[in-house]
Amino acid sequence: MKHFFYSTMLGLLLAAPAVAQTPAYRPKPADLATDAAISCAQAHQSAALRQPAATVRHVQKMERYDVKYYKLDIALENNARTVGGSVRMQARTKGQALDSLAFELYPTLIIDSIVVNGRRSPGLRRAAGDVTARLAQSVPANSLFNAYIYYRGTAPNGGSAAIGNALDTEYETNYGVNVTWSLSEPFNAYEWWPCKQVLTDKADSTDVWVTTASLNKVGSNGVLERITPRPNGKSRYEWKSRKPIAYYLVSVAVAPYIEYVNYANPVGGPRIPIVNYLYNAAAQADYQTEIDRTPGFIENFSSLVGLYPFATEKYGHAMAPIGGGMEHQTMTTQDGFGFTLTAHELFHQWFGDNVTCASWQDIWLNEGFASYGEYLSLTAFANSAPYTARAWMDNAHANVLQSVSGSVRVTDTTNVGRIFSSRLTYKKGAAVVHMLRYLLHDDVKFFRALRTFQTTYGGSTARTSDLQRIFEAEAGTSLTYFFQQWFVGQGYPMFAVRWNQVGNNLFLRNTETVSMPSVTPFFDMELDYRITYTSGQSQVVRLRQSQLVSSFTVPVTGSVSSIQLDPDQWVLNGTGSILRDNTLVLASKAAAKLASLNVYPNPCRETLRLANLTTRAAQAEVTDATGRVLLRQTVSAAQPQLDTHALASGLYHLRLTSAEGDVSLARFVRE
């Protein structure tokens, strides 16, 4: 959750005040090198953390049905965590009859009754947050049923909460407003309403009805259908959404808000209302200029990755003193409107809300992409942005490089601090997205892949393997090696480059070392080299680091004065050194021609075939990531294949040298 320890940065990196403030109190931007996200993350990790609400066995019970619809009909005020009312759940049983209903609710909340298909449950069992209600009559397999859960109580606070208050209330001192709001990610929705907390089971639609004092407004998901007067000076806000939604994105925000609406007009789409619930007129005066960036952000993202996915409902913001933002579907909860905070939370509507990670292992699909949304916005609105996109990426890389270890994949999904690691999930996740863009070397393909991801998995959930398949279709080759290195693997590469010029030949030798050799011994990648001449002119060449020590001969047209590696910060790396070495001379014949070689199937098993091989005879050499030669074989147009049965599973490099000295390169995976 950037919500507590990512978007609360006071520095330019995330450009969002930790608490919404009047101009007299608004913090000044800090230097980009100051990253408050780390200290915020540490503070969050020191809070009372525990296992996810449901046990494995209880999750298995909940998986016996598929949620279709939730209706929350509850009472809330803007100065208390007291909650009460009912939740209707409509669901469909799966392949077997249902004789009990399993769901989750925090143990201190009281359940008055449970009614399933019109019949009251004769009894229930509660164990921590796990609730199992016996049914008066079983529900047949593959059948719809309706369950009403009537409950009441006070949502937990502080150390008694599972993760941090899922339903919280606070007096916002700068604007003099009491606010109550929800924040349920990753698995604490059950602290304020009974539900099934399984990422892969999105409700198809929701209604959220909240009764509160008539002085208040209530923000929530979807469209506000009506405000119904109730007795005793109360009003009921009735919100409706007919879009699939994950349990943790169901939200409420209650305060005596004022409403400010602006509109986005994306090309090819409808006019989209942006409904902003703000503390008061003073808050609107302070933030309206920043809020008014939102339409442009929506229009830009829609042009890049597809129309805003909830265009038939709305987008909006509800202010709350949460120390950042939370991407509640169609109505983000935010404490301020810094440039990158607003862009980040908005991009979540595509990556996180429309397509939700299917497991917390894959949370980078939410947070890494939302972070990259900051970069895209800084690029698109460079003239009005608080700093450059390049400065943002430089800082993101510097943050990742502060520690040598750590995988983007989350292996401990019970550790909230690790799930929402600023360094790994957000910054390294964004760096991986950036490298995918570089790998394709074609923005048309890159953004088409993102649009395909949205259309394929919109309204549902996805894993990293799903994203990989889409990018492989655009790349036309296997990307297993890339995701093994950057998603599963740990650390990053560092490079020591030696170079020399002899006549019209520039000789380069790049030696790679890695920060976590026991986990990821080698990063196979392409790298840009900027060659600058004494004339002041320069050129950029892209060369593949296919071994720990890779050598290249590059034809040049002038006297070389310097070399720069990865000048545009595409690749996450720690550059060790770049030195001229007057003794470096490479054999010209071996570098006479370098070409890519197409191989298939990739991944392979027993046999690897070489496509379009025309030479009568060539020497094939297979090496592993450390450069060890594991296989040598002669191939030809008549026999264009390699016997790979003796190779262990893993990533390999193929070097094909013709009789004329021409070299072709390929990489492949042995399953």
How would you summarize what this structure contains?
The protein is α+β, with helices and mostly antiparallel strands and 671 residues long. The protein starts with a helix and ends with a strand.
Task: Show the helix and strand layout.
Elements: H1 2-5, H2 36-45, H3 56-62, E1 65-75, E2 82-93, E3 98-104, E4 110-116, E5 119-120, E6 123-127, E7 130-139, E8 144-154, E9 167-172, E10 177-182, E11 205-213, E12 217-219, E13 223-230, E14 234-241, E15 253-255, E16 258-264, E17 272-278, H4 281-291, H5 294-305, E18 315-319, E19 325-326, E20 332-334, H6 339-347, E21 355-357, H7 364-380, H8 389-400, H9 416-419, H10 422-440, H11 443-457, E22 460-462, H12 464-475, H13 480-488, E23 493-502, E24 505-514, E25 525-533, E26 538-545, E27 549-555, E28 560-565, E29 574-580, E30 594-596, E31 599-600, E32 607-610, E33 618-623, E34 629-635, E35 641-643, E36 650-658, E37 663-670
Parallel strand pairs: 1-11, 17-18, 18-20, 21-22, 23-29, 30-37
Antiparallel strand pairs: 1-2, 2-8, 3-7, 4-5, 4-8, 6-7, 9-10, 10-15, 11-14, 12-15, 13-14, 16-17, 19-20, 23-24, 24-27, 25-26, 25-28, 31-32, 32-35, 33-34, 33-36, 36-37
